[in-house]
Amino acid sequence: MMAYSEDHIALAAEYALGTLDADERAQVETMMAADKEFTAIVRAWEYRLGVLNQMVGSVEPRPAVWDKIKTAVGLSGSHAQPVLPESPPAPVDPVANEAPNVVQLSTEARRWRNVATFATTIAAILVAMIAVAAYQPDLLPEAIRPKPRTQVVEVKTRSAPAPSAQYVAVLQKEGGSPAFILTVDGATKNFTVRKVGATAEPGKSFELWLISDKLPRPRSLGVIGAGDFTARPVLASYDTDTINSATYAVTIEQPGGSPDGNPHSAPVYTGKLIETVPPVAPAR
Fold this sequence. Notes:
CATH topology of the largest domain: Immunoglobulin-like
Helix content: 25-40%
Radius of gyration: 51 Å
Distance between the termini: 84 Å
CATH class of the largest domain: Mainly Beta
Shape: rod-shaped
Largest sheet: 5 strands, antiparallel
Strand content: 15-25%
Number of strands: 9
Structural class: alpha+beta
CATH architecture of the largest domain: Sandwich
């Protein structure tokens, strides 16, 4: 299959559009007679452009326009006679017309390049105007300057959660100084034990217990660590009434705490929760 240049394709398109003069059309028809593949290119353009032609209605020219056409082609007046050829035209030799074809293709190429350059320039101007309108609209004339748009945005700020109730128990011997301070958060039920005056015996561990009339036996809340603070989330499995009314006790157990979940010594420090910070009612 022969490879056709853009000039050949442009020539085929102009032939389909009907914008060529008589000599140019004759050259295209000669090429079509000698080259079936080039004919197929012309027919393809005719098919594409025919769809556009169907979208445009026909318009009958005014009589004055017809008179000008007749005058231009020499058909006006009563003595105008059609000129008939004395003999049929001689067949055109494609090889002999190769040089004119090259000249004609060069002309068509310049024409299409000019059209492409013009279209590219228009596109560049449009892109530049869009960019200026988006980023520097003040540079545009006032008539085509885009009008500013005001958009109202509702910003909803999340209110801080209301402070939850806080409870504190001082764990100590009866009449003695505080050994531990137990703090419980009413919302999360997490607790913190702060060591104040207790001193662990060598080889022993302090273990915290919850003692309630609602439970059949004391429940371990874990071993109190060696640091100043020990935090646990284990109260989450108990209801609020049980937590608030229970007695909290500390026993001395073997290292690591009770092995069977039962206290193995009498409580050495005890205390009950009292409310220190009441819950804050949500605003209405």
